[in-house]
Amino acid sequence: MNIQQNQVIESVANALQYISYYHSSDFIQAMTNAYEKETHKTAKNAIAQILINSKMAAIGQRPLCQDTGIVNVFVEVGMGVTWDAEMSLEEMINEGVKQAFTNADNPLRASIVADPLFSRTNTKDNTPAVIHMKIVKGNKLDFIVAAKGCGSENKAKFTVLQPDDNVADWIMKMIPTMGAGWCPPGVIGIGVGGTAEKAMLMAKESLMQPIDIQDIVQKSNPSNIEKLRLELMEKINNLGIGAQGLGGLTTVLDVKIKDYPAHAASQAVAMIPNCAATRHLHFSIDGSGVAKLPEVDINMYPELEIDYSQYRQIDLNSLTKSAMNDWKVGDTLLLTGTIITGRDAAHSRLKKMLDNGEGLPKGVDFNNKFIYYVGPVDAVGDEVIGPAGPTTATRMDKFTDMMLENTGILGMIGKAERGEATVQSIKKHKASYLIAVGGAAYLISKSIKKAKKIAFEEMGMEAIYEFEVKNMPVTVAVDSQGENIHQILIGSISPY
Fold it and tell me: For a designed S-S bond to 13, which of 53, 85, 99, 450 qualifies (C-beta 3.0 to 4.6 A apart)?
């Protein structure tokens, strides 16, 4: 059969929409198992939020995470395929990406910037995708379409070991250095052998496989690679990093390993994590029509509710620095009041304005407020805002002194750890750093009751918003005395 151009475009677009709001059943089962066995209260709460968020996203058909990712496509092209198309296969795939990310019913956040060395201009439709093609026997197309969030992608690691070096030792050395910015619990993908680029590609490909470590545990005669997977799974989880870096029993849900023959003098090793918003889908196109995607059983989700009785109500509009002195790391809070947002590019632009003596943009008042590190998805229908989960706060460390000294902010809200210099700055200014759960973006968005852009509107997701929130769930990660929850839980393993 001929493969028609529209079949590829529509299939790719449909797949990207699908994975934006549906977790795979193997992930939900693994997370449910992690929730049921978790004994650490704060980590259990984080896992609950991820599962509740997943069910809400599935029902509402809105993104699981505000970072809807850089699109990765693996496609095997049968040698017998014939075409009814004017576009190249790469052009078809990118047209599918464009249609998915600009879908009026469920617009996805455009995060891709062109001219990455200089202007870093947003392409507005999340193109181009990163595409890997392979020619194989057969007369069909086999696709894996994935959306990879940058919080996990930024934690990719690579090295070339000596042939007799221990791969497991290197991996265990690297895991703590990733901190919590990759939003665990998730999956670790490892590629060993080949060349540098082959090892990285295998690590990424391994993340596209189902979570099946529970089946390996039951095998009476596992292979050497399966034994290594089990060893690493146990060792990583025994580190106690846990959900969102908050401690607990589960840091990884599975460890995947792919290998390839290598030069006798080399052992290339790559490691890439996949976050709690793991998104990938496999499908085929044989010319008979647009790919049919799996049906989702909403009953696969556990019945969970957040226990708000353990949270402390905080009125942001009357909050003072002295009141924050009572907060301790690990405290769970429900925030109500006004917060201001800002991400990387907004901070950079604010710095230029302050350095030039221009002051803050008109209408932007940070005084006695928290800044939330977020780039939300655009709203649809009657939504106030789209999914609006936290971005990795570590990237804003270099701006923290500037913000605390020049804007009057009380503190910051994000995800993952802060560097030691930033923690000391927070302590000096008697501020606080709070974390929201990465992977709970749709759930968090429901606590945002009003939203308006107040500066840098032309910067898309980097614009500054003013949010009115009610009962936004957060955890104290760095208190005004400089106690740091991530340093306590991860820093004792490997300081960062």
Answer: 99
CB 358 within 8 A of CB 408: no
**Same-domain pairing of 316 and 273:** no
**Which among 263, 279, 295 is the end of a domain?**
279
Query: What CA–CA distance (Å, rounded) separates 8 from 42?
Result: 44
The helix (H) or strand (E) run that includes residue 471 is: strand 464-478
pLDDT truncated to tens, each residue of the chain (496 aa)? 799 999 999 999 999 999 999 999 999 999 999 999 999 998 999 999 999 999 999 999 999 999 999 999 999 999 999 999 999 999 999 999 999 999 999 999 999 999 999 999 999 999 999 999 999 999 999 999 999 999 999 999 999 999 999 999 999 999 999 999 999 999 999 999 999 999 999 999 999 999 999 999 999 999 999 999 999 999 999 999 999 999 999 999 999 999 999 999 999 999 999 999 999 999 999 999 999 999 999 999 999 988 888 899 999 999 999 999 999 999 999 999 999 999 999 999 999 999 999 999 999 999 999 999 999 999 999 999 999 999 999 999 999 999 999 999 999 999 999 999 999 999 999 999 999 999 999 999 999 999 999 999 998 889 999 999 999 999 999 999 999 998 876 654 443 3
Same-domain check for residues 352 and 262: no
Q: Are residues 207 and 345 in the same domain?
A: no
pTM above 0.85, yes or no: yes
Q: Which of 228, 232, 262, 230 is nearest to 160 (CA)?
A: 262
> Is position 240 within any domain?
yes
On whether residue 6 sits in a domain, the answer given is no
- 220 phi, psi to nearest 5 deg: -80, -25
CA pair distance 319, 300, nearest whole angstrom: 41
CATH assignment at residue 441: 3.20.130.10
